[in-house]
Amino acid sequence: MEKNLYKKIDIREEVPIKSFTIAAFICKKENNKGKYLQNSWKMISGKIEKGEKAWQAALREIKEETGITPDSLYSANKVEYFYEVNQNCINLVPIFVGFVKSEVEVRLSDSEHNEYKWITVDESHNYLIFPNHIDIIAYLEENFIKKEPVRFLKIECT
Length: 158
Hints:
alpha+beta
């Protein structure tokens, strides 16, 4: 009977699932708490270029948007997903977290951002407009600041 049920499904049009962008958070550890760089009140993000791996796009976007080269980069082991209206697809966005020393200089891209601030998890709800971004920062705090990051998530960027 189940086989017949599946045959009755009439698929008219598909909504494809794609992954063509990345998201990255930059974190510095101070007094055993994370501070996350937020420019224009969102995380760093951008398109993956042809021939590029997602983690390479994350490093490139971090450098382009902030002038920062992270001391270390990790897969956050999270994927953000949402419906992309203009592309008519579900976009899967791999999330990365880069760590920097406290004294790093931030140089914003003039064309993309005009302001930034290092924020804590507790401050995130005052700055971020998407609830899932607040949840991601809380996840990063629990799994990358309060605990040592899982070594298998570290990306060797050589």
